[in-house]
Structure formats: structure tokens, C-alpha cells
Amino acid sequence: MQPMIQPTEKIWHNGQLIPWEQATVHVLTHALHYGSTVFEGIRCYATPAGPAIFRAREHLRRLEDSARIYRMEIGYSGEELLEAMGELVRANRMESCYLRPLVFRGLGEMGVLPLKNPVEVYIACWEWGKYLGPEALAQGVDACVSSWTRLAPNTLPAMAKASANYMNAQLIKMEAVVNGYSEGIALDAAGYVSEGSGENIFLARDGRLYTPPLGASALPGITRDTVMRLAGDQGIEVVEQDVPREMLYIAEEVFFTGTAAEITPVRSIDRILIGSGKRGPLAEKLQKEFFALIRGEKEDRHRWLTPVRAGRPVTV
Ligand code: PPE
Fold this sequence. Notes:
D-amino Acid Aminotransferase, Chain A, domain 1; 8 helices; D-amino Acid Aminotransferase, Chain A, domain 2; 2 domains; 9-stranded mixed sheet; 316 residues
């Protein structure tokens, strides 16, 4: 479910914590006109050792990748941004939250060529509950195959997490929601399954998991990688291959993965029940492992959690 934003005290901007109300931009900001923004979405979870950011380094690396693709200089190292995220979570006294680093071309020249516009870096955070509704994780969601195609290769680069890509995502999502579905699944330009508007997708058949390759215009999801590793740990085979649309309908299970969506089962697609129309055993097994890890109930064997407190005093 989409949260109404609850203001926090601070937002991080170009190296400083500023009051929430001051985190505004000019109407002639380049990004507002031409979509020139790259961003991340990262969860910080409550653990017995305090708030801990999940796979922070992998998310920040993807932010650097996105910026590089668009010839943007972030101006802060991954370590500096990691430090900034910790500072922000502490300053806002969040136990858990969703972090949103945003890097965009600011106010300067007007016109498509962005190279001289200043690059602005912000990090905000807020509380974000269950992405596809409170019951989604246990019951599964109803999805449809979108009439919109995902970004074609060599148009908007799908490996960059760029705001412009989310115009396509909005078309997919709006169409799904106005037609009574929770989410839309887009095909790639060749007609193979790509991903959801804000999630990667997996399906299970004969005990094996399948997920589209990155070449199918799918975002290199961090949760996608997490699920592949957790499946590997449990001896579940994961095959990255082109997925024909009809393979969704005959799957035993389908689930979405994403930072916001976590691991969300899909119970029907185009009103065809997936398996028995309930969360399947593989999704449940992976969810159990995932939630135990992020809650700090299981040893963090992959070193995926970065504690925010870690001996640093709270500075407000
Ligand atoms: N595909 C898309 C298009 C996508 O937006 C996301 C994340 C993923 C895959 C999964 O990636 P990852 O979070 O690294 O596992 N979508 C983010 C934003 C959602 C939003 O509505 O905003 C997210 O989940 O944070």
C-alpha cells in the first residue's frame, strides 16, 4: 500500500541534514523537465542490535552504476552515502524505515543537454509498510499481464534505476489498478516476461525456480539476488532464462521480489489461478528465511545488515 508521507525531522542534502520543510527544489530543476534522476530504495529493519540497513553496499553500488550510465557525478563515495544514511536514520530516530537516495540534475542551464547542471544529492526516509497491501505477503496478490511493454533495449537503459523508467512503470501500474488488479507484469520487447512495475518476478515449476535474465529489460534487483542466494543455500535450483508468458499461467508458484514488496506471492494472473491460488511452499520457505535474516533472528551469514547504531553516538 502506498503510504501518505509522514514528515520526519530531517532530510540529508549535499552533505548536511536539513529540516524536512527546506528540502524543496526550484520549478526549473532539470530533472523535473527531462527526467534526469537516478535513485535507490533501501530498507532499514529493526533488529535486536537496533536499526540495520539491508544490503546497503549493493544498493549504493547500483546507484553509482545508474549515475555512470547517465554520465552523472554523484560527488560522494559509497562510504560517505552509507554514513549519511546512518546519520539520517539516527537523527530521525527511526527504528525501521525506507531510505530513498535521490541524485538529480538541478537548476542551471535549460535544455536537454544536462552536463553543466549541478548534481543534487538528497536522502530522505519514511515508514513504508507492505507494498502490495497488508495481506499480500500471506495471501498473495492478483496480477495481470500488462498491455504496456517494458523499456526496449537501447531505449531507456533498464539496468539504471532512473526516474524516467518509472513513467513506463506508472502506465503498467495504473492500468492494472484501474482494472482491479494489484500489479501489472510487463513483457519485454521480444514478448518474454520482464518484471512487475516495481518488482522482479520468479516462478516455480517442478521444484525449480525461474526468473527472467537481465537482458529481458529487468532491473538488477537486490532482492532478486537475495532470493537467488537464499534459494542456493537451501539447495533450490534457480534458472535464469527467457520466460514465455504462458509459463506464468502453468507455474506452480509465482512471486514478486523487491525492496518495498519483499517477497510477495502472486495468486492469480489474468484471473487464472496460479497453482492452488495461495502462497506456495517455496515462497513461504524463502519468506521465512528472508524475514528471519532481516529481523536479526538468524545469523547474518552473508553480512547483509549494516547496523546504524554501531557505537556511534546519536547526533541530532
Ligand atoms: N524492478 C523494478 C522496476 C523496481 O522498481 C524494483 C524496486 C525492483 C525491480 C526490485 O529491485 P530491488 O528493490 O533492488 O530488489 N522498486 C523500488 C521502488 C518501488 C516504488 O514504488 O517506489 C523498491 O522496491 O524499493
